[in-house]
Amino acid sequence: MPISIKTPEEIEGMRVAGRLASEVLDYITPFIKPGVTTGELDRLCHEYMVNVQGTVPAPLNYAPPGYTPYPKAICTSVNDVICHGIPGDKVLKNGDALNIDITVIKDGFHGDTSRMFFVGEPSILARRLSDVTYECMWIGISMVKPGIHLGDIGHAIQQHAEKNGYSVVREFCGHGIGRVFHEEPQVLHYGRPGTHEKLETGMIFTIEPMINAGRREIREMPDGWTIKTKDRSLSAQWEHTVLVTETGYEILTKSAGTPPPPAIVQPKAQAAA
Ligand code: MF3
Ligand code: CO
Ligand code: CO
Q1: Fewer CB near the terminus (10 Å): N or C of the chain?
Q2: Which residues are near ligand 1 (CB < 6 Å)?
Q3: E strand or H helix that includes residue 184
């Protein structure tokens, strides 16, 4: 199956879904404090999606081949959890670092985005790992334009992570997205320039690097979803959903609370008002 090229109508639907996903992250931010459980964060996000936004949480009951249905509305991945952490009784404490990953469905379209958060004051390592991971995501985003290859992006992300002494998780990747949650292409966060698919205007996919402070190996928890670092080192992740435009890219998962690009990335010229 070739990578789908979205129509103008589909792109508009994806803009709406993307903004709404990002707004769930804005909404939950002030609740992330010592003493709150990840289950409470899930409950709050779920209620906000359904009752305020009129969106559907895509993770709930999501069951790709080989998986049991995912039991919650969001993913909360704390400290050495790489991704797909299931919200529950875990009480957040000062110094924890967590990723919250939100995917909403609005009018059939998916918006998928995640950010890192700290509970109180993070360690220097946790802050640096999150910052480098954010730079990795943005290095990838800033390269997006018609004609480049996905391997160019993966290579640049891997170079930046490894230059900083960190490792790139191999088992999970970014993905095409639209009416389907996970579709082609696979967007690897490592690789060689010139390999994999060539980008064309109208493609939509996520860039969502998972970067470990230690070794890249993973272990899967008995719940069938939660993925941790094998060596118990910290892991970080950031995610945006991105459209390939004629001149470059458009980030679809943007809202009032979206952090600005990092200093190492040349900000894209904004159209004059
Ligand atoms: N949002 C995740 C991603 O970025 C996927 C989560 S699947 C779930 O692709 F079932 F764990 F929610
Ligand atoms: Co994703
Ligand atoms: Co996601």
Answers
A1: C
A2: 59, 62, 70, 75, 84, 101, 103, 112, 206, 208, 225, 239
A3: strand 183-187
CB neighbourhood size of 246 (10 A): 8
> Distance between the two ends of the chain, CA-based, in angstroms?
40
Global pTM? 0.97
CATH class held by domain 8-272: alpha beta
Quick one: pLDDT at residue 2? 86
Q: Please name the residue whose Cα sits nearest to atom 10 of ligand 1.
A: 59
DSSP, collapsed to helix, strand or coil, labels residue 43 as: helix
pLDDT in tens, 102-154: 999 999 999 999 999 999 999 999 999 999 999 999 999 999 999 999 999 99
Listed residue (5, 188, 229) closest to 97, CA to CA = 229
Record the tokens describing residue 164, joined without a space. 């900083």
3-class secondary-structure state, position 147 = coil
